[in-house]
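Q: May I have one protein plus its fold?
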Amino acid sequence: VIWHTQTEEQVLARWASTRDGLRAAVAAERLARYGHNVLTAVKRRSPLAMFMEQLASPPVALLGLSAAVSVATGGLADAAVILGVVAINAVIGYVTESQAEKTINALGDIGPKQAVVLRDERPCTIGLDEVVPGDLLVLAPGTYIAADARLLASNQLSVDESALTGESLPVAKHHQFRGVEETPLGDRKNMIHMGTVVTGGSGLAVVVATGKHTEIGLIQSLVGEVKTPDTPLQRQLDDMGMQLAMVSGGICVVVFGLGVLRGAPWLLMMKSAISLAVAAVPEGLPTVATSTLALGIREMKRQNVLIRQLPAVESLGSVQTLCFDKTGTLTENRMRVVTIETPERMITVSVDGRFESLGRPMALSDAEDLQRLVDVTALNSEVALNGGALNPELDGSPTETALLEIALHAGEDVKGLRARHPLVKTVHRADGRPYMVTVHDTGGTEHLIAVKGSPYHVLERCDRCFGVSGLVALDETRRAAILQQNEAMASQALRVLGIAYGYSADTSTSAVTENLIWLGLIGMEDTIRPGMAELIAQFHEAGIETVMITGDQSATAFSFGQRLGLSHDKPLEIVDSTHLEKLDPGVLKSIVRDTTVFARVSPAHKLRIVQALQEGGRVIAMTGDGINDGPALKAADVGVALGEKGSDVARSVADVVLEDDNLHTMIIAVQQGRTIYRNIRKSLQYLIGGNLAEIEIMLVTTAIGAGEALNPMQLLWINLVTDILPAIGLALEPPESDVLKDKPRDPREKILRRADMWRLLRESLIVSAGSLGVYGYSLARYGIGPNTSTNTFMTLVTSQMFHAISCRSERTTVLDMNRTGNTVLLAGVAGSLALQIMAGILPPLRTLLRLSPIGPADWAAIAAGSIVPFLANESLKVLAHPISERETRS
């Protein structure tokens, strides 16, 4: 059925539904017939497939070739060992990757779980999976649309369909629209679809498709089996691994050629060259990258930071500008009315709700202007009063709850007031309409109109005001005085609302917003969350600029920004965003460059601001909690939503969710993002440095014809013992003390820069020099043979273990007392050294690796050849990073 071409009655008839909704029994029968409203689960890799993937790599292919050569030359034991190395590496890779995949597959398990439908003629909340065809969805701002549905009613309805169509701005919907069969999906204005979100207005819709039969379900079924895509960092590491393999392969060919030219048996040199190629390729790279990202996600979860998108872990370390939504994010979103200004008097409101004017208490019965203002705010409200009349529970937004509390504290019978003036119609705030209108029955021919919202826009629609002396015309003098009052209140960081009322027989939106009567201004304060100014200072120290985006007036926003120190040591620049949509994109891009505060911002403005900042080359993080933050959160490089008080919309599109609404954990998330990137660099430094040292030793000894420094079994042992465990230990390195004092990294920067490659070459040459020194000593003492090879082998492995400890920091030495310990790395190093000692002591391992007994003098030489390179590399850190520089960073 082409639903968007059908009338409302045709669709209702097709599903045997009515505008009162389904009966519970019918819904239960349909749930059994059509199944639960869930999308087809994406197939995951099987354990066997994951294990086999560990074998599908160039290093494993080289090892297989080496095993085949061993069998051809009668080395069955060697072949068995090679295959054992393959199996052990595969098991280590499988265990690590399966744990990482479990963590990654759990990402995104945050979002709406319930829907509001009409059942048995009344609204009820049910699980999303219980929605069935024929159900009537009740739509309001923030509603997550649970299924595909045809609109039956709509009032200024707008929907964010970016999840389905890619359209970034909300789309207006109309139930009276009739399409043709060829109408594109994005133009079907009478249809709403699963996975999209209501951003404004209200409506009612009948469900026509659920689960896999929805538009988003059909798309998913076309996708088939989906694997979590690699992040940019993982792709960069894969490319680097391939480049290293090609370079290493070329060097191994050179080693093979030199050996043959020197008269070595070609089969032996082929085995050595293949083994060297295996040892030279850092096959631990993908495992280290995936594990580091997954373990970083797990660590952040312990800090109440949930990651929904894997690339967000990397992006956190690159954030250059952090955009804050003010209300509910920087503030506690607990509003309290503190002052009221009618046209002819100023009234303060105490913490317990008492009114005072000129220092004297006053009651509602003594002030008709105040009485009318309080009544209008009580009517223009969507707050529900639950429980008894004496002490009702209020269920609504913080702003509306605060407004209703002043009426209740003054002794107003709000339930009675609402009963005398029942609600007829509500016109919600929307883009271009920063105020809310409610229409109420008066029992006569005219309806009572109650309005609250932006003082400037509400005042524009008023032609009279109500004061102590009754109704008077609003001349320019009075308008100027009201606007001056508004600015004065806003400059005290108060949120200010304008209140007005009127009467109209016509209930159309245009009619109820004309010829209104001004009542006054209400000023509310929203308490800043504790420690916000200090947190902002921390972000500045980390090189992250801070920007506030708020719907408040300019004076309020400016005062608030100054109190928080948003501009750091620069003048605070503020932009009033009222006419932002009229600006040329190029002009906007230049304006946002130096702006700290954006005031009077609409949801569409937030999106444009974030996109303009991104076009300026910045990596942007956006925090928010409301429905209106959704588009900007999705567009930002890192969208950050509040978990407890945040809306379903914000949580469903954000990359990061702060579970406990504590913004201070955001600095922890940035620290963790930077630490993850640093730790991957440390693992790379260790893996590549060790591999280079092996190549250098083999290249030098083969070139000078000084025999075989390391035999194929020893190279395989090094590959097994020294690569993965210490590298994973480095991936778990705790944050360094200076990680938040660095500037954000450029996301376009390669993970290993040219300077890093020179440093790696220098460090590897120092490590290989120590091993070659022991090789020379042994050659002079024993000549070419097992003793010389044994000492070189033991020295290189021990040197690599010391090098792993050195790689803990690029700047500080092991003597730095401020560094946190890394028990995982130390355990990995200790275990590897224990295995190495066992190889030198246990006869079976000695035979396998072709080792000879080691005497005390040789042990001393091995210790010197391992420790001296370690001390040399640590000393070079001091020369490269003077004490004064390290102290300023600590």
Q: What stands out?
A: The longest strand covers residues 148-160. Residues 664-703 form the longest helix (40 residues). Confidence is low (pLDDT under 50) at residues 223-228, 883-890.
